[in-house]
Write a structure and sequence with these properties.
Distance between the termini: 71 Å
Number of strands: 5
Largest sheet: 3 strands, antiparallel
């Protein structure tokens, strides 16, 4: 029996997911495994219990910040994003080079991490390992993934997407859309979302422009800031 099952047996929530207050003094005998010890991992926000129920804590009975009682106060209707990645996807990407820096090393910053392309992590299809696709992910070394994480964080805060022309030689700011984040496009079109697709699309666009313009026009597009 899991700790979640043990607590549910002890708390006995009703059909609405509401239980009585359960004192930690009841965590004895059959229920001794529920003793909180190192922070109570079985009832944390990330626990399976908290994903199903609204878990409330009472710390008002004894001095300090210790949890005195726990209760369930209904079902948790808020959908949370599960960051787990299916094993076959991990296996496919683990030996691939970083799509941004082209490396796959053994040092901390060069080790490959499997990155969720969509930095906002708000697509519940990608959250479900049963419906995940290879194209939802990409191999990034830790250094690139750390940088992308900060870039995505800023995009969430400002609603402005990262301009690919921040990298010298990149000819276009985005491969689809513009700097404004929209629900319609999401992250699609941003270099950080898919640098490989950015490069492919850029080559096609440049080839199209090359049929209509001079070589100097293309060179100036790539290196307009060169002296």
């Amino acid at each position: 029996m899991t700790k979640t099952e043990l607590f549910l047996e002890l708390a006995k929530p009703n059909k609405n997911g509401i239980s009585r207050w359960v004192s930690i003094s009841e965590f004895v005998g059959k229920f001794k495994d529920l003793q909180l010890g190192n922070g109570g991992s079985w009832c944390r926000k990330s626990s399976s219990l908290a994903k199903k129920y609204i878990v409330e804590f009472d710390k008002s009975i004894t001095k300090g910040n210790s949890i005195d009682r726990i209760r369930l106060n209904g079902f948790n209707t808020e959908q949370t994003f599960n960051q787990a990645i299916r094993q076959d996807i991990k296996y496919f990407y683990k030996n691939k080079n970083c799509v941004m820096l082209g490396i796959n090393g053994n040092s901390e910053n060069t080790k490959i991490e499997i990155d969720h392309k969509d930095g906002r992590k708000n697509d519940l299809r990608v959250s479900d390992i049963k419906t995940q696709k290879l194209e939802d992910f990409q191999p990034l070394c830790k250094a690139a993934n750390d940088a992308k994480r900060q870039i995505c964080k800023k995009c969430v805060e400002t609603g402005k997407r990262w301009n690919a022309k921040n990298l010298k030689g990149n000819p276009y700011p985005f491969y689809d859309g513009d700097e404004n984040y929209t629900a319609e496009l999401g992250c699609v079109g941003c270099y950080q979302y898919d640098p490989v697709e950015y490069r492919k699309t850029s080559v096609k666009r440049i080839c199209d422009e090359a049929t209509k313009n001079t070589c100097k026009f293309i060179f100036d597009k790539l290196y307009s800031d060169d002296e």
